[in-house]
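Lecture notes, unit on protein representations.

Consider one protein chain, 296 amino acids long.
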Amino acid sequence: MDFFSWLFTCAQAGVRAWGQMAHFSVSGFLAMGLSQMRQIIPVPESIASVGAAALLAMLLVLAWHHLRQTRHRRERLFALSYLAVYLPFFLWWIPSDPDFFLATLLPIWVLVLLLIVDLGQRWQSRWWVLPVGLLVLGNLWFTARPLQADPGPAHRRALALSQAVEPGTAVVAGYGLEQELRYHTTVAEVFEGDTMGTSLIHGRASRWPSGAVVIERSYLQLMTRRMNAADDVLLRALLVYDETNETCRAHDLMPGGWGLLISGVDQPAEAWSMVLNNLVDQVALQLSEESLNTSH
């Protein structure tokens, strides 16, 4: 039973953006089409809806064409079945995340190439090889090359944060930054905050920081802004608030705006509401100072 519980943990995560039937709407389909299109070419926000609609129309044309063909039927049906399984799942799960749609890029390419082969045979022309070359080169040039040259701000932030924290310090962050820290830095302990909070709420917490902890700035700001039940429980646990002895772990905002550093040393504490309000005020003050410095 533990194995099956683990398999379906994602469905019980409690993250509102994950797994919503509301995604099966015009906006959800457009988000899915845009995410898939951006795995092929960069589509600016100004024509996002056009790009999304074009990709969805292309998928319908591909399905209509390949279902009518008999040559290489097994390969065509495999690619169509793959898309029929994964695209609805990604639509239900989180259609606005382009990273998921890398998994559906290959079967789409297979269907496009088979379509071009079909057209070339029908019209007895070899010039159809040119669209193939343009599509492949465009995909590499506009999608793969920029990712290789600049993996993005989350990657840069993760590298810089790993240099700012002391060795052995655990980091709690949002999902994107947590993935970058986990796979591209030497930070030994990395935790995704929403998962920790939800696990605490449901009594499923297993892994836990063993020493000092840094709550990364962006995620700290998110927590103090929304402050739901999971955030409250997570902060209380990370600060090791002891209501009986009126103590909690010493904590302070790190210089340079990296986040909240929670040490392994206890300090006297007031009521939990006071501790929480002081923390929220500190984060709000830091935000206002950053905005002031940016405006000047």
